[in-house]
Amino acid sequence: MFIVGLTGGIATGKSTVAAMLRDLGVDVIDADQVAREVVEPGTRAWNKIRRYFGEDVILADGRINRPLLGSIIFADSAKRRLLNSITHPEIYTSIGWKCLRLLLTGRQFVVIDLPLLYETRNMLPYMSKVIVVSCTSEQQLQRLIRRDGYTDEEALSRIGVQIPLSEKCAMADIVVDNSRDEEHTRRQVVEVVHKLRGSYAHWKIRAALFGLVATVFGAFAYGCYYIARL
């Protein structure tokens, strides 16, 4: 099984493309959903957030007040790094287990929706391919304002903390243009899935795993044989 990263800029349409991939039968792991799961009340990450950020970020039902916590870390880079140090190990571990379960079921590939793939770079070495979803700068700004209710200044600030979309597109293996109508985007996604399903990358990875298992088994068998002769 090989891993495909799905990323882009804020409000460029990653969720739309992820939904289209799922409609085509592709397994998609949503890193944002995993991030919500690892901070559920009572988890290790939740306890650390409560300890370091205080009761103010905990809602009455015990859940994290994500908008408030987001505003805190957006304004303070040190607190942003602290939160990342708490949540990222939990997120990556959970994603790793999800990938392993899919591998054991014989999946050819899995797509991981990672909004900050290029910014954090932690998962980048594991990606065989990276898909970037793009649109025009003006579309990105207006979509973000409509979606989250930001002012122009707030939206531009949030776009500005990410790597420019043009740079992400330059680094990508595949770019999906989401600047036109939905059908235009869907046709591109269908073509991408067709190419991924025609890839032989998973056989290379399986061959490498088989070689590793064979080496370990061979070493174990030789050790048993050597001990038996003593």
TrEMBL record:
Single Gene Ontology MF annotation: dephospho-CoA kinase activity
Cellular component, GO, one term: cytoplasm
TM spans (from-to): 207-228
UniProt entry keywords in alphabetical sequence: ATP-binding, Kinase, Membrane, Nucleotide-binding, Transferase, Transmembrane, Transmembrane helix
SUPFAM superfamilies: P-loop containing nucleoside triphosphate hydrolases
GO biological process, one term: coenzyme A biosynthetic process
Gene3D superfamilies: P-loop containing nucleotide triphosphate hydrolases
Full protein name: Dephospho-CoA kinase domain-containing protein
Species the sequence originates in: Ornithodoros erraticus (European soft tick)
Origin organism lineage: Eukaryota, Metazoa, Ecdysozoa, Arthropoda, Chelicerata
